[in-house]
Amino acid sequence: MYRTHTCGELTIKDTAKNVTLCGWVQKSRDLGGMTFVDLRDRYGITQLVFNMEADHELCGQARKLGREFVVQASGKVRERSNKNMKIPTGEIEIEVSRLVILNRSELPPFTIEEETDGGEELRMKYRYLDLRRSSVKNNILLRHKVSQEVRKYMDSIGFVEVETPVLIKSTPEGARDFVVPSRMQPGTFYALPQSPQTLKQLLMVAGFDKYFQIVKCFRDEDLRADRQPEFSQIDCEMSFVERDDILDTFEGLAKYLFRQIRGVEFNEPFNRLPYSEAMANYGSDKPDLRFGMKFKEITTTVKGHGFQVFDGAEYIGGICAEGCADYSRKQLDELTDFVKRPQIGAKGMVYLKCGADGLKSSADKFYPPEELKKWAAAINAKEGDLVLILAGERHKTLTALSELRLEMGNRLGLRKKDTFVPLWVVDFPLLEWDEETKRYYAMHHPFTSPKPEDIHLMESDPGKVRANAYDLVINGVEIGGGSIRIHDASVQKLMFKVLGFTDEEANLQFGFLLNAFKYGAPPHGGIAFGFDRWVAMFGGQDSIRDFIAFPKNNSGRDVMLDTPAEISDQQLNELMIEIKKKDK
Ligand code: ASP
Questions:
Q1: Is the whole-model pTM more than 0.90?
Q2: Is the CB of 430 under 6 A from ligand 1?
């Protein structure tokens, strides 16, 4: 038997027991007569002690232990004189009588402790060492716990976990596919699923009624910060449901997970906010509702006073930062610089300070005090408040104001890490116009159902059609999204038409689905949650990377496996693939 206990379980109650532990040497301290070794495994750290006087040879052996050596140590549990109350095993130590080196280790390239000297790239290259650090390890354990809880809950309400294939045909989720060449049929390719969307719909046709899966999805996108080319979803689909059945079901899942994982109770139903209101009030389809600071549109209130910035604007709106009337010139300049950054793209910012000594604005050349009073009234600003105003083209200005609102939320400490405010954003537009290609794209995907009351606009005014689609948003992060699907062949046909697909093209790409729909497709709908992101949120962090055991870096590389990599000529020949070598 290698061990009687783990390094995380012995406490004062075990005093005088004879035990054997195995683990890695985190650190050893040599204090002349005594040598102390911190032994680590997944469960914790236990202190080993070697006494020079008691056993000269054994102590000599202990002194030679290097960091990350794998050892087996036997001895007696005893109370420590110097207790560490921060860890569960901190009141005891093992007085070692036998030590076996199970394996040696080279000097690790960085210190494997909470405070590490390893940079990001180095830790990624040696991820298996990084995973020994308790913060990263705990994230992976949290992920395990969340996935177990998801399965428990979904099973308890009758969902069946079904695995769908990884080698499939292109699924349209708006990104590029990763493809895998076929050796048996040279010149043809599988695609890795961007999501199991079509397959889960086929499971509904098959009559499974309630499906879920924690599943890998692959999207070959230009990587933005904190995106992974492969990521996991909690993917779900249900039959014979309307939108609210789905929202209720998954609100149940969300509440259950928050209770089990974070001990947070939500007693009220989640707010359901139409997309149009989310945009008008917060300039975003994923508003952070941990704080208010709703937008107020003041376009008609302020136009017509010769101030070109306002007079030429399609939209003028402001937010009210309570109690910020004493912002300094420097602070206001910082905010102006913030909104003028290219990513945000505002031309400038107008402010209105509601000070005790009256109203003061950066545009008061054009606006006498009684006009400024009208602004303050329109935005509900009171004495002590600061109003920040942006103006310009409607959509761009709303988006910029949204960024400014979030920035003010940060500055005022209103975005608290352990407050969670979930909401459903509903009634998304069905279609999105793309200026470049001059055509409409499905905002969610082509199987999303329009709202029945909007179907008549599909051909006359497609941009106005609302989808029966929804997102779960928590603290400004999109955690999940889904829709009621089209199950009626004529509506699907219409959808493809609006998207510019000919019947032939639609059949070529989605024939299997359209065909299946001829055999009794039930009304159905579903949702998928970003599993990595949700786990990261439960773990109180923004970045998903440390919640994935072996993630890729920001350029999509696995620096540990050193991939993507070239393959051999033999492999290429078998696949009948010729690589165009770049000119040297
Ligand atoms: N397949 C969709 C996605 O990955 C989710 C859904 O509609 O269920 O976003």
A1: yes
A2: no
